Amino acid sequence: MSFEFDFLVIGSGIAGLSSALKLAKHGTVAIVTKKEKAEANTTYAQGGIASVFHPKDSYEQHIKDTLEASAGLCHMDAVRMVVERGPTLVRELATLGVDFTRTPEGFFDLGREGGHHHKRIVHVKDHTGRDVELALLNAVKHKANITLLENHVAIDLITEHHIFIPTQARGSSLNCWGAYVLDSGKSRVKRFTAKATILATGGCGQVYLHTTNPLIATGDGVAMCFRAGAAIANMEFMQFHPTTLYHSDADSFLITEALRGFGGRLINKRGELFMDKQHDLASLAPRDVVARAIDAEMKKSGERCVFLDVTHKPADEIINRFPQIYQKCKHYKIDITSEPIPVVPAAHYSCGGVVTNLRGETQITGLFACGEVSCTGVHGANRLASNSLLEALVYAETCARSAQHFLKSGNFTFPPVPYWDDQGTFNSEEWVLISHDLLEIKNLMWDYVGIVRSNLRLERALSRIRLIRHEIENFYRRTTVTPGIIELRNLATVAQLIIQAALLRKESRGLHYTTDYPKSDDDYLKDTVIQQQIM
């Protein structure tokens, strides 16, 4: 089964939906998303969107805060573009129906989070991502040019390595002509050809045992691009959110940084404010500083968590500003207005990804990337809080503009793209054995490639992940594809990329901390790039 569109968008978070909306004016658009349309990392973003609106704030201060958080690895041109374009796109969201929380005077009610020196977080109480996602989906629904396909799992990008083209006839660059996609409801692989493909598949938090990410965050876009030959950068910089609810049944529920911006203070079991000794911003220090401090405090005390205390604030203000967190904690018999919240760090956001330029272009012609799947240079070695949705908005617009220009500039003739070859048998007993690799990957990454690393741990992890990946690849090549095996294959690939990148960086910087090289080294003040040679 084959489909042809002008634009193929893979992913339905803020980046994918925003780019699709802008592309709909210029041609036919297919959005493929592997679960329900509203299931994306965007939906789980509580905090908000960092942008300059306060009269005492400035672009220069936002840029400065971003650079400081990034530990020197930001690309200044990318940061400036995102910061300066942000306010216009936030206002666009408001016109689409996102009901941002406002002051009695009608201005945006700006919050503050870690690493920010001004209030600049535009939010919808503590469920910003959900409201943004719903508003964008509603707008997409009214665009006749957009076809949204749920429960469609991208398997691989269609490039030269899927097509027989004599070596002498190949150009000097790789090209993308769409993707092979599994319709998981019908267990059928479809061929989607497109003149331009926008990758917006989100992050890879599920590679870790404990993560704030939904189950869909399996690094699909990064893995597909690596297999296709695109450059991948900075995968060692996995951001661990310092504060997720510590409870056996809470599944790493995120406790937004905005709660600390509201006045919440991190304390240990004895009630001591341990962050005051770690950073001049104390509990509002950048996330890498806070996560490492919590990890050290737990190891020193032997306790399994620390606590976030907001009980000194008026109860009605807490409930009004953070209704979702209040209700969630109450469900677990924790009243945040009268008792501190037990918290631990969990994998949250990947600062690395598919390398793009300022136009959102990857190294593969016809392929663009935006959102968490990409490495644009905005986040460097550590993402500043609430810059994620901001970057996704700006680069979604940028990718849409670039893809539109790409469409106008070319006379498109698709090569003879073959249909998917689904020959093979599925052995359910063998699947039970191979599925055990999923838990092993998660435990391996959590134990050896977590907040604090060492060469010994990383080398042990790399040795094991290579074996696991080999087992999975062998199984994948002789069985009918399923969502489970696609995601497992991608997680194994992403895990290996994270480990290899961490071994390449012989220093501690931002989110990457290793006991073998505890200090930063200017010799490594550059991106860590890994690329598989295809042609």
Describe the protein in words.
This protein is of the alpha/beta class and 535 residues long. It folds into three domains: 2-237 and 351-409, 3-Layer(bba) Sandwich (FAD/NAD(P)-binding domain), CATH 3.50.50.60; 241-346, Flavocytochrome C3, Chain A, domain 1 (Alpha-Beta Complex), CATH 3.90.700.10; 429-516, Fumarate reductase/succinate dehydrogenase flavoprotein-like, C-terminal domain (Methane Monooxygenase Hydroxylase, Chain G, domain 1). It is built from 13 helices and 17 strands. The strands form four sheets. Strands 1, 2, 5, 6, 7, 8 and 15 form a seven-stranded mixed beta sheet that branches. Strands 16-14-9-17 form a four-stranded mixed beta sheet, with helices on one face. Helix 11 (428-448) packs antiparallel against helix 12 (455-477) and helix 11 (428-448) runs parallel beside helix 13 (483-504). The two termini are 28 Å apart.
Task: Summarize the model shown.
With 535 residues, the protein is of the alpha/beta class.
From the structure above, extract its key features.
single chain, 535 residues, alpha/beta, FAD/NAD(P)-binding domain, Flavocytochrome C3, Chain A, domain 1, Methane Monooxygenase Hydroxylase, Chain G, domain 1, seven-stranded mixed beta sheet, four-stranded mixed beta sheet, 13 helices, 17 strands, 35% helix
Specify the CATH architecture of the largest domain. Answer: 3-Layer(bba) Sandwich
Number of strands: 17
The fold-level CATH name of the largest domain is: FAD/NAD(P)-binding domain
* String of helices and strands: EHEEHHEHEEEEHEEHEHEHHEEEEHHHHE
- Average of per-residue pLDDT values: 92
Strand-residue fraction?
15-25%
Principal-axes geometry comes out as globular
Structural class: alpha/beta
How much is the radius of gyration in Å? Answer: 22 Å
Give me the number of helical elements. 13
The first-to-last residue Cα distance is 28 Å
Say which CATH homologous superfamily of the largest domain is assigned. Answer: FAD/NAD(P)-binding domain
Q: Low-confidence segments, ≥5 residues, pLDDT <50?
A: none
